[in-house]
Amino acid sequence: MVSMAAEKSFHRTTRIERPREAVWAFMTDFGNAPKWITGVEQSSQISPGPMGPGARFKETRTIGRRSETYEIEVREYDPPRRYAAAAQAGKAEFVYSFDLAASAAGTEVTMVATARGKGLFARLFIGIGMRFMEKIDGDQLERLKAAVEGSAKRA
C-alpha cells in the first residue's frame, strides 16, 4: 500500500550578535514570544514541572481578523543548542525547530518549519499550509535578531 503522508518545510538562518546563552534565554522565555513571533498575543506553559521534552504550552495568536489558541508540545529541549515544538491542526502537524551555534560573531540560529500530515486532504492542505507558514513566519529569525539585539542595547 502506498503511503499518503505529505511533508513540506522551509528553513532560515541568521546571525545574532549576542552570545548563544543570551539568545537561548530570550527565545525560550514565553513572555518574549509577542516580541518576535508574528501575531502572538500571549504564550504560557500549561504543564507542571520544568521546561523540557513533553512540556506543553498554550499560545494565542491573531492573524488577520482571526484569533486562535493552540496547544503546543515541546519535542526537543537541549539548552542552549536545540529547541523544537509541535502543534496539531486537524490531521496536520506543524513543527518548528531551532538550532543555535556559537560563533566568534555571536550566535548562528537556524529555524526549520515543517508541516506534515496523512491522507488525501492533508496532502492537499500541507502545500497551502506551508505557503501560509512561510508568509507569516518567514522573517521570524530577523524579528528574533532585532528583539534580542535591541534588548541588549536597552540593558
Model description:
The protein has 155 residues and is an alpha+beta fold. The chain has one domain (6-37, 75-154): Alpha-D-Glucose-1,6-Bisphosphate, Chain A, domain 4 (2-Layer Sandwich), CATH 3.30.530.20. It is 29% helix and 45% strand. The chain contains 4 helices and 7 strands, in the order βααββββββαα. Strands 1-7-6-5-4-3-2 form a 7-stranded antiparallel sheet. Strand 5 and strand 6 form a beta hairpin. The chain is globular and about 45 Å long. The N and C termini lie far apart (58 Å). The mean pLDDT is 89.
The topology string of helices and strands comes to EHHEEEEEEHH
Radius of gyration: 16 Å
Largest sheet: 7 strands, antiparallel
Q: What is the third-level CATH name, the topology? A: Alpha-D-Glucose-1,6-Bisphosphate, Chain A, domain 4
What would the principal axes of the Cα set say about the shape? globular
Supply the CATH architecture: 2-Layer Sandwich
Average pLDDT value? Answer: 89
How many strands appear in the DSSP assignment? 7
Helix/strand-derived class? alpha+beta
